[in-house]
Amino acid sequence: MKNAMDFRNLLNKDNNIVQLIMMTILIFVVMTALSPDKFLRYYNFESITYTFPELGLLSIAMMIAMLTGGIDLSVIGIANLSGIFAGVMFKKFATDAGVADTGFGIVLMGGVIALGTGLVAGALNGLLITRLKITPILATLGTGQIFTGLAIVMTGGPAIVGFPNAWAFIGNGKILGLATPFVLFVVLACLIAFMLRRTTFGINLMLIGTNPKAALFAGLKREKMVLLSYMLTGVMASIAGIILSGRTNAAKSDYGTSYLLQAVLIAVLGGTNPAGGRGTVLGVSIAVVALMLLSSGFQILRFSNHLIDFIWGAFLLLVIALNAYKNRTR
Amino acid sequence: MAWFQKSEVVIAGILVLAMILIGLVNPAFWSLDNMFSLLRSNIIIGIMALGVLLVMISGGIDVSFPAFAVAAMYLTIKGMLYFNYDGVVLPFVAAATMGALFGCLNAFFVYKFRMIPLIVTLGTGSMVRGFLLGVVGTSMININKMPDALIDFGKSDIINMVKPDGTTFGLTAMILVYVGLAIALHFVLRYTMIGRGVYALGGDPEAASRVGFNIRKITFFIYCVAGALAGFAGLLHSGMIWLANPRDFVGLELDVIAAVVLGGASIFGGRGSVLGTMLGVFMLVMVKNSLIIMKIDTTWQRVVVGVIIVIATAITAWRDRRANA
């Protein structure tokens, strides 16, 4: 009896989650019906577990920025720059045997450099937003250009190809039969979810997003919290960059540019309120899986990439309309 | 306000200073040839910036206009080829109308669902470009197939000169189109009810609607005009470069937004002027073009644009805070 009550409670409270799950199931069923022999193959799902984590992490990063009513348009730039910095360093330390056999210590250092890039880039965003009071849209639009520009300066344009084997493991390897990126995504998602739900930091972030004035009067250190949240966003973006460069064994200044729209879409679809205060890791995670199923289904049906862009855009507008409709009836 | 505190005057001052500096590094900057080509590069970005200015005064932001511009341009030229039509006026009307219709889509979502313009325009931009490339086609229309009238129109100069070595150069007549549109928009913003309404909406939507401005009408006006300007600029661009490329204008939104912010418009709305925007456009184009003259590697272009955006927004944010305090 008590269990049933809890379940109903869950339904009411996380209405959005239930709808998302239903949508995922719907997409799954439709795609299965359209091409059962190709869509239902194990290989298809396995490849999704390799490709979705980077987009998922970027979407979570976007959600964190949105929690305080901001947005981060520089995540792609941060991700690419992190991969490129690490790649440049590996090239420097490469032995005669080539980059592939680089020692574990140096790979670890590459990881620190990549994460550090994300941290510094995020801190720059945060400082511009909190200290100089630039609106997040314009601040991150500008820094995104700077990061992408630096990536071009570092590489001169073409991709950096060739990463150590240990680095590639992060993007291509398997842990206990599961894709490493997938495992990494689950661990990080749980960590962030815990941080947002159960720590003072997370709860303060939500409060700042819900009502900045009330949060100020309640004595919350808004500037510090916002700064920290953009640093967290930057680190998440750089982890996505590590996975991306590990998976493709290359890093380039204009990789994943279409991810920006998709990350915004997934965050909004996952129930994040772009005006701040609302958003869950679970919602975003389900949304990213749903949209990856959709996208892989369309690829199997041989839709062109441009048409998929069209569908992403249409989907975003549809979600906006639905959300507005839902909020009105409530 | 004292005249020297006006942002247009400040921007103009910085502009003159920058021009003197660049001229000192490389005197070739001051040659008429270079000046004319600079002015020429202003036109397309400038016309688009007028549209973005309108959106930013109202407190929004638009990242969909490059997609609208390229779609209006490509569809118009495809249509001209299909009907074997060769003219100038009708195609521009068609392109502007198409842009306005796309703009309506933005206005509908922004007004009806009260959604943040950035997210709406991200969606519509991606849709329009995806549709264009996925359904209409990805192939370029080269000079041999381009309508002749359009090319002739794009070629017309107002001043023609001959260099000592015999080659000719000139100032394109399209600059008149740009200036004409700018003056028209200036008057609309300054002296018409709907123009004042755009400022009112950007200043405070609630207050604007209480004093009787029709928010719906103003929102549709803003985004339709912005779309129409983008469509017009798109077609003009292809007439000037004698080529219709459906993959054109990718990433142009950043340059245009940077130029508008540089011109003193505030993203919080309610502030910005046509003159300031034109100065901002000139400054951005000049800095980008002069990197080559100043012998700085072109790979630094993106970094420079980014730094310009950050500095310009920091200054406007500082100015806005001081104005409110």
Model description:
The complex is a heterodimer of chains A (330) and B (325). With 330 residues, chain A is mainly alpha-helical. Chain A contains 15 helices and four strands. Chain A is globular, with a radius of gyration of 20 Å. With 325 residues, chain B is mainly α. Chain B has a domain of 204 residues. Chain B has a two-stranded antiparallel ribbon. In chain B, a hairpin with a 5-residue loop joins strand 1 and strand 2. The longest helix of chain B has 27 residues. Chain B is globular, with a radius of gyration of 20 Å. Chain B starts with 6 loop residues before the first helix and ends with a helix. The mean pLDDT of chain B is 86.
First-last Cα distance of chain B: 16 Å
Largest sheet of chain B: 2 strands, antiparallel
| Mean of residue pLDDT values of chain B | 86
Q: What is the rounded Rg of chain A?
A: 20 Å
Short précis:
The complex is a heterodimer of chains A (330) and B (325). Chain A is mainly α and 330 residues long.
Annotation keywords:
heterodimer; A: 330 residues; mainly alpha; ABC transporter involved in vitamin B12 uptake, BtuC; two-stranded antiparallel ribbon; B: 325 residues; two-stranded antiparallel sheet; 13 helices
Secondary structure layout:
The complex is a heterodimer of chains A (330) and B (325).
Chain A (H helix, E strand, L loop, with lengths): L1 H12 L1 H20 L1 H4 L2 H26 L7 H19 L10 H27 L5 H20 L4 E2 L3 H8 L1 E2 L2 E2 H19 L1 H11 L1 H6 L4 H27 L1 E2 L7 H11 L11 H20 L4 H25 L1
Chain B lengths: L6 H19 L6 H26 L7 H19 L5 H25 L3 H20 L11 H8 L1 E6 L5 E5 L1 H18 L1 H11 L1 H6 L4 H27 L10 H11 L11 H20 L7 H24 L1
Antiparallel strand pairs in B: 1-2
Helix pairs in contact in B: 1-12, 2-7, 2-10, 2-11, 2-12, 3-4, 3-5, 3-10, 4-5, 4-10, 6-10, 7-8, 8-10, 11-12, 11-13, 12-13
Subcellular location (chain A): Cell membrane
Keywords (chain A): Cell inner membrane, Cell membrane, Membrane, Transmembrane, Transmembrane helix, Transport
Protein name (chain A): ABC transporter permease
